[in-house]
Amino acid sequence: MAKTAREVPDACALRLPGEHLPVAHRGRGLPRSSRAGRPGLAGRGRLLRHRPLARRQGTGCPCPRGGPATRNRPLRAQGAAARRRGLRALRLRARHGPRQPRRHRGAAPRVERGGRRFVPRLRRLARARRARSLLRGRGRLRGGAGPSRGGFPGARDRYRFAPGGHALSLALHADHSLTDANTLGLPCVAERHAAPATPAELREALTLARRHDWLLTVLGGGSNLILPERLPGLVIQPAMARWWLEEQGDGALVHAEAAVEWHALVIALAQRGLWGAENLALIPGRCGAAPIQNIGAYGVELSDLLEAVHLVHLDDGREAVLSAADCAFGYRDSVFKGALTGRVVITRLVLRVSRTPRPRLGYGDLASRLDAEPTALAVAQAVCAIRREKLPDPATLCNAGSFFKNPLIDGERARRLLAEHPTMPHFPQPDGRVKLAAGWLIDRCGLKGWRQGHFGVHERQALVLVHFGGGSADELLGFAGEVAARVKACFGVSLEREPRWAGA
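Structure for UDP-N-acetylenolpyruvoylglucosamine reductase, as requested:
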């Protein structure tokens, strides 16, 4: 009796593994069928992988995974094949979502090769592969890679790459907003931005900038800075934020990295009974920016306790250490605003503090708020209370603190002004000059609380210019120039701006 077409799959299924098919079926494959035996087309319209009969029936030993051609390949080739399979799986998952388990009965959900630990490794490999694909030769871009303006090598938001084509540990950001990175709240966009958290990442950023000839701008906490609408090149904002003590006799040396918040450091030292920095409490900004303008308040300046400044030269990455004498400190001035402007990045400060009580209470009404023998923490808290009464909080009203320096004039000129204004605050200096209070001069011109456009003079402290939102750097400079011009007309005294212009 001749066999029918429906009986052919059953005859094939009864053969043991390795036996040949009938001559009639050679070269034509198997008939498509889903009957018992060797499976054909089933499920969602694709051929399922063949498994030997003994394995399907639950008897016998499982066959080794992969044939001789797979097992005999070198380990490197096997690893490369596994990576390719993993990368394909990641691409499919990103495109179509996670794979759904099979709907028919008896099939277990698919297990990804290598388990959970394998997926992060594949992602790192994919990221490095994308980074290498962006570059050709020694850091040159492929055609069309990255935005056309500025030639920024990378995708839209974030990328990791090195000039040689290997993955970077440093993250670079394209068109990074710096509006929240300056206390004046001025709108600003950095063409490229990096926040190195280690010295090695800082060296990576400097090497990258030198290789691509990018303009470099170093940004700290943005509390004493005027930012333009756009900063070209690379903006480096150090994120190194450790500090530690080195005990020495009755005092200690404080090592503070650039991204340490200054006020937090002052309070931490005062809580430990260490004297020297308590009068400088509540000054906004980070330690890396403190030496630039030689911050000071209530009769104390940073130069009074600074021992050394660690820095890195931007042009060649060379590290150096400057002593306090090398910094050429003056009133709101230093070598970092002169010969070293835009040439170095400060990485660490070394301060000397003492355990012996040394309160300095001779400035303003500080002494009237304290006991006869105050602690360092009590002095710091009194300073904070006074500053909060007079100065607005940048978190609620954008400002850069004191916008003008207190002017220094010669003694003869000061005597003439005192004859006209006997109540004018004045502070004689060791060199014979006299320091005047810029806030008092602005107030006497009737400018306290004055507003023009998006900027104004603070209603409680005339030395502070505030930003109400929506303004620009050019508008701020025009407003500040008008204030200085009126003081010049009333008193003949020139006011100098304290915040620095970014990149200048």
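The first strand starts at residue 41 and ends at 42.
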